[in-house]
Structure formats: C-alpha cells, structure tokens
Amino acid sequence: MSLAKVKKERTGFFERYASLISSLIAIVCGLLVALFILMVSKPSTGFNGFLMLLLGGIPYGGVKNIGDTMYLATPIMMTGVALCLAFKTGVFNIGGPGQYIVGAFGAVFTAVKFGPSLPGPLAWIVPLLVSLVLGALWALIPGLLKAYFNVNVVISTIMFNYIGMYYVVFWVKSYILDSLRGQSLPVPAVSKLPKWFLPSITNNSSADIGFFIAVIVCILVWVLLEKTTRGYEMKACGMNANATTYAGINSKQNIVFAILLSGALCGLGGGLHYLASSGVYISLVEQSAAEGFTGIAIACLANNNPIGAIFAALYMSFLTVGGQYMQLFGFQKEIVSVITGVIIYFSSFVLLLNTTIARISAKRRLKKDRMAAAAQEPAEEEKLAVETTKEDDPVQEGGENA
Amino acid sequence: MTVLVFIVRYFMYFFIPLLVTALGGMFSERSGVLNMALDSIMVFSAMWGIFFMNAFVDVIPGQLLLICSLLVSAVTGILFSLLLAYSAISLKANQTIAAMALNTFAPAFCVFYSRLVNSGSEHIAFPGSSFRIESVPLLGKIPVIGPMFFQQAYLTTYIGIVLFIIGSIIINKTKFGLRMCACGENPQAAASLGVDVYKTRYIAVMISGALAGMGGLMYILPVSASYSCTVAGYGYLALAVLIFGRWRSRPLLLAAVFFALSKTLASAYTSIPFLAALPLPDAFYKSFPFMVTLIALAFTSKHSSAPKASGQPFDQGKR
Predict the structure, then answer these.
(1) CB–CB of B290 and A293 under 8 A?
(2) Where are the alpha helices (DSSP H) in chain B?
(3) B interface mutation test: which of A87, A152, A340, A354 has the most B CBs within 10 A?
(4) Whole-angstrom Cα distance, residue A214 to residue A318?
(5) Is A34 a domain residue?
C-alpha cells in the first residue's frame, strides 16, 4: 500500500518523458549521422553546411524562413496526423502517397472547373472538402478489404499508391492539362487559400491559413482519440480486434472508419498543399508523393500523438528549409530525406530501449525501497508484501509505456 | 512473330529481377522477418554494383566484370539488410517502420551520393549493352525458342534462374531451410528444439539482402543505360509477388510470371495491335498488375498461408 503511494510520487524521469526523450534521441542520432555524412563527403564545408541545416537557413532567409517552415509543415502535418490516427487504431495505412495525390487532384480539379463560379470563401472550401472525400474514397477499398477479406493493409495501400499515381497523371492529362508546361492548370486566384496577415509578418513568405487548418485538425484528432467514446473504441480495436468484438464493439466498422478518416486527412493534406497561394502544380511525373511517406516519419517522431505531430511536422519542415540553403555549400537537399530516414530508423526502437531503461530503473528503485522497508520493519509479512508488489510492478510499467 | 520475340525478351528483362527479389523476400519472411525494405536494398546495392562496374570497366574483361558487379551488389545488399536485421531481430523494433525508414533513407542517400561523385547528376551512365550476348552458342540457333530466350540475352537471366532453383531447394529440402521455416511459423517451438532463432533469422535476412541486391542490378542492367537512383517500385512489386505466390516457391514462380507479363503489357501494349486498339487509358495497363493483386488477395487472404510469426519479434521468454 505504502509502496504504491511512493511509486506514484516518484515516477522516474525516464518513465514520465519516455516518448519525448526517445524522439529527441532519434533526432540527435539523425543529425549526427548527417554530420558524419557531410564531414566525410566534403570536409571543408561540411560543418558550415550542417550549421545551416541546424539553423534552418535563418541567417540567410530571416523571418521568411519561419513562414516557409509553416507553409511546408502544412501538408506533412496532415499526413503525419493521419498516420498517427491510423497507427493508433492499428491500421497500418502506408497509402498516404496515393490518398494525398488523389486528394490533391480532387481539389485542383474542383478549383479549376468550378472555383470561379462558387461564391466567396466557398471557392476554396468546396475544393478542400472534395479533397477530403476523395482521400477517404481512396482508403475505402483497402479498409473494406481489411475488414471483410482480411487483406493486409500495408500491401493493399501500397497497391493503391501505384494505382493512384498512374491514374492521377492520366486524369490530369485528360481533364486539367496545361499542355504548354506539361502540368496541371493553375488554380484560379479565388480558390487559393487566403493568406490573411501572414505575408506581412513573415516577409512575403508562402505561409497561408492552411497551416492553421492543419493545426486545428490535429487538435480535433487528439480530441477524437482521447476524449470520445468512438476514439476509445477505435484504439481498443487497434489493440485487439477480437477482444473488442467480444466486448460488443463493432470492430469491422471501427477499422473501416479509422482508415477512412486517415485517408480523408491525407487527402486534405494534398488539397491544402496544392491550393496554396504560392502556386503548386501536379506534375506528370509518375512518382509517389513524398509527403505521404514523410507522414510516417512524423507519426513515428510524434510517437503517434496528434499534438506531437504538429511539432514533428514543424521540425521536419524546418530541416527542409535549412536543406534548401545547404546548396550554398555544395550539398544536395536530399540530405534532409537521409536524416528523415535515420530518424525513423532510430525512433523505431529507441522507445523500446527507453521502456527497458525505465523498467530497469523502476526495478532498482523498488529494490532500494524494499531494503529501506526491511531495515525499518524486519517483519516477515511486510517482506512478503514487498515481494508481490515487486513481481507485479514491472509488468504494469511495461504495459503503460508500450 | 517479331512482335512476339520482342515481347518475350522484354518479359525476361522484367521477370528475372522480380523472381530473384521475391525469392529474397521469401527467405526473410519464411524466417519470420517482414522485409518491406526490398525496394531500398535494390536501389542501394544496384548503385554500388554500377559504381564498381564503372571503376573496373577497363580492368576486368567482359562477362567477368558483370559477375563481379553482381557480387558487389550482393555484398552491399547483405550489409544494408543488416540494418534491418539488427533493429528487427536484436532490438525487436516494429519491422514495418524500420523498413520504411530504410526505404526513405536509401533513395535519398543514393541521389545525394551520386550527385556528389557524379558532378551534380544522379543519372550514372554505365556500359550495360556491352554485356549483351548476341547469341548463345548452339542454343541461339534453335528456331523459335532461340531468338526468344538465347539471343540478345543477358547473363543475369540465366544466373537468376539458377539462383531461383538453388534458393527453392535450400528452402524446401535442406536442414537449414526447414529450420528457417520453423522460425517463421513457431519460433518458440523451434527454439525449444535447439534452433538458434536469432542466428537463423539473421542469416535469412542476409540471404534476402544478397538476392535483392543482385535483383536490383539485374533490373537496372537490361532496361536502361543509366542508373537514376530508382528501381520503379520493383521491391514493392516483389512483395506483391511474394504474397500472391503464397510464400511458396512454385506459386511464387507463377506469380512472378504473371506480374512480369502484365508489366510487359503495360510497357509494350502499344506494339500489340489488338490491345492498342482498345479504348483503355495507359494508366489502366500500368496499374493492371496492382489491381489484379488486390483482387487476388481478396480471395486468398481469408485463410492466409503467411508464415505465422512473420513480422513478430522473437522473444525467448514468451510462450
């Protein structure tokens, strides 16, 4: 009894911040690997290049870089939060690239065809809604296949990435082709996302209200997962679909809903990016949308926490902005993707290591407590009680952190 | 006739790397490690194979250079797959995430590195056509089959077929192969009989790395004249072949034939008169293999024949 109280008061540093610490360790490891690669490849400018990456190019770009960071964070925040949701609910949605680009096509298509005839802000709200719906549609079939035919989501969503990639190129060619430039037609000015006050405070950067929309969505997803019954059911289905079915929850419905929502958010990410005021066009190159895969990195870094996704996305885009300035030192901007890969790699197991450390430290502390208790009251029952708590606690500890 | 010969040749170019890489995936998955990193292994090791080829083009003569380059690709594939093996087996990390990390890392690293050493361009030219065998002695003269399989062929085609035969014998007939499959089905049971699950899984992932590495070079060699840090999603396609082939070697062969065939159709349908006449978009042909996989998976996944422990880290203490 007394021990349980002691434990609550003295949860160790590692236990309380396990996921944050592991993310930071992963980031530091990623940066160290980058530094190593830079120093090996060009010893003369390596360190300066690394510094530029670390500072996000702010010494050159100033506040404009902060705005650009917000702008670049928008799409990856959306795919990141979509994947946080998917991973938390046990649906391994690797279909981000497909859902993202299909959503982007939906938004651009609607904006080009119907944007000018829609009144007021509807001109950009309607395309965004279309992107949301199309993203969800692209996730619907993998979801149904998973729920009713037990098809592995990872594989089916990868298949849909390719199908989406080929068809979007085809659709752009057929419906909204700018044949002069070989890309999609420009989005009409009325359908572009408003910039509000952002250009004036960030020195005409590309930032627009898409950033705020993305942040709000992240918060909403957090509320859904943590504060609603539906979110609880979804998470429970992710942990053990059989157990939830036994408890009377419709697990199939929840799985389909989770992947639909995840796809919708990816699609919205595509919509937000391609309606941005700075002017982005869907190219005819058959290549998976990188933002979809960056979402995986963000979800890992955020440890599947929707609020964490906001910061993880900001950090990643900060690196991307910094990477653009590294070309001044003769380095390719791909180094950012290298770092991303290394960060995901480390974050895939650092949390596990951390949990182990936390378990060991908890064990050690219990041992100390037991010795202290034994020194105070050498009664036989007390010792026994301590034994049992010690047996139980590490298991609980692991369960909480995993 | 000439169209058919052309299509068969093209088919072989697609078929062999797919077969070899899927075989690699089979090794890894039958031992219980989900290898989603096949794609990045292909990209990464193909690059080193190409670098080696370019560096030694004047030193090592003819086909020997090709074999050496394949070996270099295999070795780099093994080294790269160790990254996956270490996190998936020793550190018990989530195997899909670790593999996706490698898939993010490898193409970016290859672009970064090849631009650095190749004066700013990621397209590395290589003397691929010099390895083409105009006509295999004797066999090339067989009337129909000769032009299809033994003219304008690459040594990699035959190496790939030999690798597949050896690989399936190892998996199905040898002590190691059967133990490996036990590790993928029920690692605890295997461990209780004295099989070192960790070691077996490490070896299996390394074999898969070697095969995928060679598969990467085999893909690049016949279809293009320069390496541009991508294998066009072939690693993922190989995974689909593996699943479609139900993780068994003979169905795997059929699945690879099917995928390569649809891939060939996608890139050559314009030269087949009756297909070119159909009012279908090219996106349809390109996505055809993927759509068929989905349909096939829908019918076969209910009673999955996937290795039961695939994707699950082995924990000695768990039962």
Answers:
(1) no
(2) 2-30, 38-55, 62-85, 95-117, 145, 155-173, 175-185, 187-192, 197-223, 234-244, 249-268, 273-277, 282-300
(3) A152
(4) 16
(5) no
Domain assignments of chain B as residue spans, ordered by start = 2-300
Q: Considering its fold, how many domains does chain A have in total?
A: 2
SS3 B51: helix
Q: How confident is the model over B63-75, as pLDDT tens digits?
A: 889 999 999 999 9
Structure tokens at A239: 């942990």
Give B-chain residues touching A154 at CB under 8 angstroms.
36, 96
Q: Which residue has the tokens 């790939």?
A: B160
Of B264, B254, B259, B243, the C-alpha closest to B307 is B243
Evaluate whether B216 touches B77 at the Cβ level (below 8 Å).
yes
What's the sign of the alpha-carbon dihedral B261, B263, B267, B273? positive
pLDDT at A398: 41
The CATH number that domain B2-300 falls under is 1.10.3470
Q: Over chain A, what is the mean pLDDT?
A: 82
Query: Residue A399's pLDDT is what?
Result: 40
Through-space distance between the first and last CA atoms of chain B, rounded to whole angstroms:
60
**A353: in domain:** no
Helix (H) or strand (E) holding A134: helix A122-149
- Comparing CB atoms, the residue among A149, A296, A352 nearest residue B100 is A296
- For residue A335, tell me if it sits in a domain: no
**Contact call for B98 and A342, based on CB within 8 A:** no
User: What confidence score (pLDDT) does residue A264 get?
Assistant: 95
B198 to chain A, any CB pair closer than 8 A? The answer is: no
SS3 A266: helix
Token code pair at residue B312:
């699950």
Answer yes or no: do A283 and A214 share one domain. Answer: yes
Minimal Cα–Cα distance from A353 to chain B, Å? 8
8 Å CB contact of A334 and B111: yes
Contacts of B97 in chain A (CB under 8 A): 296, 300, 344, 347-348
Per-residue confidence band for A11, with pLDDT thresholds at 50, 70 and 90: low
> Which member of A160, A345, A352 has the closest CB to residue B105?
A345
Nearest to A266 by CA among A74, A72, A71, A69: A74
**A140 and A97 within one domain:** yes
On chain A, the residues whose CB falls within 8 A of the CB of B294 are: 141, 145, 151, 156, 159-160
Nearest CA in chain A to B115: A332
CB A313 within 8 A of CB A69: no
Task: Please compute the mean of the pLDDT values over residues A254-269 and round it to a whole number.
Answer: 93
Cα–Cα nearest to B99, from B47, B44, B46, B48? B44
Q: Is B290 on the interface with A (CB under 8 A)?
A: yes
Number of neighbours of residue A200 by Cβ within 10 angstroms: 9
Cβ–Cβ contact A300 with B under 8 A: yes
Residue B138 φ then ψ, to 5°: 70, -65
Average pLDDT over residues A358-377: 79
> Which one of A155, A167, A349 has the shortest CB-CB distance to B87?
A349
Q: What's this model's pTM, rounded to 2 decimal places? A: 0.83
ipTM above 0.90, yes or no: no
- pLDDT in the model for residue A10: 52
Are A124 and A245 members of one domain?
A: yes
Domain that holds residue A99: 43-330
Q: Indicate if A272 and A370 belong to the same structural domain.
A: no
List of residues 6+ apart from A170 with CB closer than 8 A:
B281, B282, B283
Say whether residue B101 is in contact with chain A using an 8 A CB cutoff.
Answer: yes
- Whether the CB-CB separation of A304 and B71 falls below 8 Å is answered with no
Amino acid in the structure at residue A190: V
Q: Assess if residue A90 is contained within a domain.
A: yes
Chain B nearest-CA distance from A170, in A, is 6
